[in-house]
Inverse folding.
């Protein structure tokens, strides 16, 4: 599915209309996708516009911007299974009187877990975007969370896929066949404590990135969310 | 992959050697699989014997029996992500002093959740097996957890797939192409309280099955495990 010939200009114009500071990044991202259309995620839904069309660009501009809006941790909306409390009481000796509290805190813990991967992307974006990388917010690029344009015309783009943990599911890496190498990195290990910042693929940024700095980012982010809430 | 011609006899003999009370059920299950080889799960591993071979029958007999051994709830072995505690403290106001306890109870809750589906199969087996169904322990049959032999020769087998919850992932239903209908049932709903026992597919067994009886089964099962432990 080819992109319309003036895709980059349309992209810049669409983004300028809704979120001007993102116009340049978004236009660059569309430049990458129009050169590597196999890497472009399709939109969902039965009436979704074709990849690369003007309407596709308009919808992706909205998604790229909206995915950067603040998002709060939230307990899952699903109803807990009562049998879990039975097991906690009968096998793990949680007192009856504590079961409600344990259920609530377990639910909050799941909500927190569900947000860590996104907080990680936001933290990385805060450091990487001022250094030339583009955060692919809104999952527009298959198998990449960040891309970096080449410094010289004709050179290769860098593609980076990040995961919070070594056993998180990969996004569909196999679906992208662009001849471009995808660099991969994960923050934590499922089988041991510690973090993996020392192995971050962009060596020039390693000194800027750390678990402590991520924690500080998360604290500030959540504090800002709380201030919005009150 | 066809089954060896005397598969049912080999199956009966292999099971008689390791767990005699299961010999008849296992032989019947192999009769079903030799008639519907597309429904037979492959064994894993690089040296796995071919589906339907004598060695396959020997290994499946061991698996069918071993999957019925008692299994305790266990917290996941993975290392918790410390950022979850940061979020609980900074956004959900869990006091610092409680974070260790919350982490431990969250881990036990996940261990309990991971066991509910298996407890459900064990409970169902306790009611269904005396009524002619066979529990496909050890995941030998693709997309079915229970099968029921026909009462008259040449009639169809019944296949039943059970899930703990309406949003649990399906096993690979699409992989089975035997012309046999797979009946499906789930115990709970992700979006509302209550249970689904009234919709259990075998109408003759509905009166025997209930959430209360399942709970009593779980309590007894866990009590027996605790007695083994001490």
């Amino acid at each position: 599915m080819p992109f319309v010939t003036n895709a980059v200009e349309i992209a810049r114009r669409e983004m300028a209309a809704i979120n001007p500071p993102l116009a340049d990044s978004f236009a660059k991202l569309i430049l990458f996708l129009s050169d590597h259309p196999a890497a472009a995620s399709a939109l969902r839904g039965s009436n979704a516009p074709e990849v690369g069309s003007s309407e596709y660009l308009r919808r992706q501009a909205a998604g790229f911007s909206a995915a950067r809006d603040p998002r709060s941790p939230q307990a899952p909306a699903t109803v807990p299974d009562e049998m879990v409390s039975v097991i906690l009481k009968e096998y793990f000796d949680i007192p009856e009187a504590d079961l409600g509290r344990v259920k609530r805190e377990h639910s909050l813990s799941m909500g927190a877990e569900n947000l860590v991967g996104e907080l990680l992307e936001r933290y990385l974006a805060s450091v990487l975007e001022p250094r030339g990388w583009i955060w692919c917010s809104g999952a527009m690029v298959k198998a990449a969370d960040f891309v970096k344009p080449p410094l010289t015309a004709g050179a290769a783009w860098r593609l980076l896929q990040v995961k919070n943990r070594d056993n998180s599911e990969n996004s569909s890496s196999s679906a992208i066949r662009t001849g471009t190498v995808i660099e991969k990195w994960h923050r934590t290990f499922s089988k041991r404590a510690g973090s993996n910042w020392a192995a971050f693929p962009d060596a020039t940024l390693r000194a800027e990135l750390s678990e402590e700095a991520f924690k500080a980012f998360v604290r500030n982010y959540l504090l800002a969310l709380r201030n919005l809430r009150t």
